[in-house]
Write a structure and sequence with these properties.
202 residues, mainly alpha, 6 helices
Length: 202
């Protein structure tokens, strides 16, 4: 797969997820508010069009992110990198998809579906954060990726700083900052691959 194709996979994953969140929120007629409501509520068991949201908002983007991460690893095979940050990235996408397969039940947070959804959501976030803290060290081993390594290394710290200023009364904003940090991370990596579009990974 060439770098252009993998770059597009990353961009498509982010675009589909963000577009789905925006569109589905706009279609709600119950006063859904991005400041106060969790993203998961758009695909909850009693939500209208729940499977449309879960497939396009969670499952498909998660699968694409996992594919993107494994293809990104191939880019660095010849640079003696540690592979675990790339696999953490892979798991973040996999757990994101898991959250989509099991919609949250807002009326029963102890249900099996809600529990697995929470594991998927939390796992996806934790695995991404671990990846964000460690991947840059591997990226910089490729001379042409040093600037990208620096850019991506700053994202988790900026995210944590930004979230520290968010009021407890607007929990939805904190979650969206986390989503935004994750997606910005992917877009920077995908953009770099597009700039190296003529190179083909094995």
């Amino acid at each position: 797969m060439n770098n252009r194709t993998n770059g597009l996979i990353g961009i498509i994953a982010v675009t589909i997820s963000i577009s789905t969140i925006i569109v589905m929120a706009e279609l709600r007629i119950d006063g859904y508010n991005h400041f106060h409501k969790a993203v998961s509520e758009l695909g909850s068991i009693d939500a209208p069009n729940k499977w449309t949201f879960n497939i396009l908002g969670y499952i498909l983007p998660g699968i694409l992110i996992s594919i993107f991460s494994l293809n990104l690893l191939k880019e660095f095979r010849s640079h003696s990198v540690k592979s675990y940050p790339f696999y953490l990235f892979f798991l973040s996408g996999l757990f994101m998809s898991l959250a989509g397969f099991f919609p949250v039940n807002m009326e029963n947070r102890q249900s099996i579906s809600s529990t697995i959804h929470s594991i998927g959501s939390l796992g996806g976030g934790v695995f991404w954060l671990l990846c964000a803290f460690t991947l840059w060290w591997q990226l910089k081993k490729n001379q042409s990726w040093k600037n990208t390594a620096i850019s991506t290394s700053l994202i988790p710290f900026i995210m944590i700083l930004a979230m520290s200023f968010i009021s407890e009364n607007t929990p939805g904003i904190s979650q969206r900052i986390a989503f935004g940090a994750n997606y910005l991370f992917i877009l920077i990596l995908a953009g770099k691959l597009l700039l190296d579009r003529n190179k083909t990974t094995p």
